[in-house]
Amino acid sequence: MEYILILIAAVFVNNIVLSQFLGICPFLGVSNKVSTSVGMSGAVLFVMTIATLATYLLHQFVLVPSGLDYLRTITFILIIASLVQMVEIILKKVSPPLYQALGVFLPLITTN
User: Fold this and answer.
1) Which residues touch 110 (CB under 8 Å, ≥6 apart)?
2) Which of 20-24, 37-41, 53-57, 105-109 bottoms out in mean pLDDT, i.e. has the lowest?
3) What is the pLDDT of residues 50-78, one digit of tens each?
């Protein structure tokens, strides 16, 4: 029985290809030019920083006191998706060439 569990863990849980595959699509699509890669990394850094702050505050001061802690994952997804949309709108106004270069990869921040 232990061998079967080890095999399942090796195939599904500890598989480096599956676990590292999540961030590879934006990396391969954006890494052709250094300026585009820097722009993508800046957008990801901005979204992660703001999302961390917003989700922490919402979790600590709204969800936990209200007893709605079980809605944490859904709330986090909604906040991150809305922040990505905000970054997309800001990039469209501030830097249209960067927005054009990122193209479809900007919404991938949400999934990653």
Assistant:
1) 80, 81, 84
2) 20-24
3) 889 999 999 999 999 999 989 999 998 88
Q: Scanning the structure block, which residue is given the tokens 């079980």?
A: 70
48 CA to centre of own chain:
7
Residue type, 35: S
- DSSP for the chain reads -HHHHHHHIIIIIS-HHHHHGGGHHHHHHHTTSHHHHHHHHHHHHHHHHHHHHHHHHHIIIIIHHHT-GGGHHHHHHHHHHHHHHHHHHHHHHH-HHHHHHHGGGSTHHHH-
